[in-house]
Amino acid sequence: MDPLTPAETGPLDQSEHERVRRAKRDQILMRGIDPYGAPFPDREPIAHLRERTEGLSPESLPDPPPSARIAGRIVLMRRFGKAFFATLQDEGERFQIYVKADLLKDYAIWAELLDLGDIVGVEGTFFFTKTGEPTLQIASLTILAKSVRPLPDKWHGLSDTEARYRQRYVDLIATPDTHRVFITRSLIVRFIRNFMDKEGFLEVETPMMQPTPGGALARPFATHHNALDIELFLRIAPELYLKRLIVGGMTRVYEINRNFRNEGVSTRHNPEFTMMEFYAAYASYEELMALTERLFSDLAQKIHGKTRIPFGDHEIDLSPPFRRISYLDSIGQAFGLAPEDYFNDGRLIALLQSKGIPVPEPRPGKPHVALLLNALFEEAIEPELTQPTFVTGYPKAISPLARSSEHDPEVTDRFELFIAGIEVANGFNELNDPDEQLRRFLAQQESRQSGDLEAPPPDYDYVRALEYGLPPTAGEGIGIDRLVMLLTNQTSIRDVLLFPLLRPDA
Q1: 302 and 239 in a common domain
Q2: Over the stretch 65-80, which tens digit does the pLDDT of each residue have?
Q3: Are residues 296 and 405 located together in one domain of the fold?
Q4: Does 356 or 444 have the greater pLDDT score?
Q5: Residue 481 lies in a domain
Q6: How far apart are CA 15 and CA 19, in angstroms?
Q7: Does residue 240 contact residue 459 with C-beta atoms inside 8 Å?
Q8: Is residue 10 very low, low, confident or very high in pLDDT (cuts 50, 70, 90)?
Q9: 441 domain residue, yes or no
Q10: Is 429 found in the same domain as 377?
């Protein structure tokens, strides 16, 4: 292995600390030791070692004491003449080791050439220090990877928030809480899968690349398939494919996977995000609301051991039943509107102006009244929905795939679930009339032709599927990223995404 020349390092500027570390790396190599070592089999995870020795005390330590073979990254070091203590980190767990000159061959090499950040494999025997700290006294040490770039200061970690997102690999090393968030995320997804399986749902996979984007009002990402010479779109939702499966006789299906929407970035939005969508034939949206209550309550018990959990400055109670309010009635009550004013553009515009709320501009192909109502809802209702609340009865104008209510054709059998002012779920009774669906698709096409890039083109194959007969079906989507935010007390979606989308670093 030869050192890189300045020309070969490209944009990777080297600090003095890095040059010193590279020199140490080269000294290790000159001693005939590979600084990027071979595999280290039969290691014991540090978490297992902690569990195995948890019940021991200095008084109950057996003779001979337990031995262990572990590996990890050095995150702390303290040198004392002819000995040093170091702390290894593995999967977010830490364990102290003790290295003494008269017990370790090549001690002088490692005492001089090891740095914070190096990855080592060690074998040794368990003991307690004078202060009672569980420790391994090391008999052998193997360098597995030399770190030539220093870790952040141990007391401050990555203090720059954007640097944490850009260099998540360093954030995971330096910030144990970050590591715990993503372990919890994995537990949440695994729990959801087990829950849905027990509820009789079948997990399926549907296309990520679609010839016609649909299932939501959003601008898609477009790509091109060279061999077929066709334009394809990264899916904005799996909805229309999942409902095709219901037509085919799969009565309860779900999918946990990525969706892609060509939109802005915020604390609640990332263009690439994870959703669970699920559909149940012969069910109603009220049944899905009850299922969602059970899922969220059970998740809180799994993660926190209780249904009251912290989020920001609030304590959220996830015990069922959740509160239920009407979309239109909540706006009417907040602003003193009579039911006959709900769809009166002039009355709504005057109300917005009187309250100092910006009046949304008309958008091609979208009923202006829907934008006006939504402006009122987002201003007065949404921020107040701290405790879990199902908002029901959304207007048909903003629910193109939902079935109209039998009691009011302008309103749909639809709900959204808000917690801490954040929408985390959306569900409804599905529209299964193929002619009505076609009419709504064609209306969306007019919107698209008028310049609305969020309106999808008609999916005529989906209409054909409906013509074979879609049984009465209820469907729902749950934002996994937002749910993880809630259950891990993170106020930004970037803190629950390992690699959130960022503008390229200049």
Answers
A1: yes
A2: 999 999 999 999 999 8
A3: yes
A4: 356
A5: yes
A6: 6
A7: yes
A8: very low
A9: yes
A10: no
